[in-house]
Amino acid sequence: MSEPSTVQAVEGLFSQTPEGPRLLGSRCANCRTPYFPRSETCHNPECERSDMQDDSFGPAGRLISIALQNYPPPPPTIASDPYVTYGVGLVDLPEGLRVIGRLLADDPEQVPVGGNVALVIAPLGHDAEGREVLSWQWKPI
Ligand SMILES: [Zn+2]
Q1: Strands 60-69 and 116-126
Q2: What residue numbers bound the domain in which 30 lies?
């Protein structure tokens, strides 16, 4: 039996690197402003010369807010079947970004706001072709 194939929920937003999972973004080399996802130009109104370069972020972050997704989100969002409520976390990264992602926790109501989280690449569920759909998620640590 072959391994189930996997697909990224959105290509080019994250990668499993030799150092671990990372979000793929960019940073302005002139003013050091970070962006996720990548940006073609710097949006800092005080920056006088956009000079965008690829950068990557994570894996450490701090959870600053949680929302509970109590009903299945509409397609194309992938949800488990049968549906199980999950948490959506707002996470501050030390690189200067604030990134939303699904919380990888059995009981999101027990996850402490203010606690540390780690970036992980994990399945959201399966697509119509039966492939495992992967995305970045935040795991409480
Ligand atoms: Zn800039």
Answers
A1: antiparallel
A2: 6-140
Q: What is the mean pLDDT of the chain?
A: 93
Tell me, in angstroms, the distance from the centre of ligand 1 to residue 120's CA.
29
> Which pLDDT tens digit goes with each residue over 87-137?
999 999 999 999 999 999 999 999 999 999 999 999 988 888 889 999 999
pLDDT at position 107: 94
On whether the pTM is more than 0.85, the answer is yes
Position 1 in a domain: no
Asked whether the beta carbons of 28 and 42 are under 8 A apart, the reply is yes
Ligand 1 midpoint to CA 97 (Å): 15
Task: Give residue 56 CA to ligand 1 midpoint distance, Å.
Answer: 17
Distance CA 27, CA 31 (A): 8
Cβ 111 vs Cβ 63: under 8 Å:
yes
Q: How far is the CA of 18 from the centre of ligand 1 (A)?
A: 29
Interval between CA 94 and ligand 1 midpoint (Å)? 18
Instruction: Judge whether 94 lies within some domain.
Output: yes
Cα of 43 from ligand 1 centre, angstroms: 7
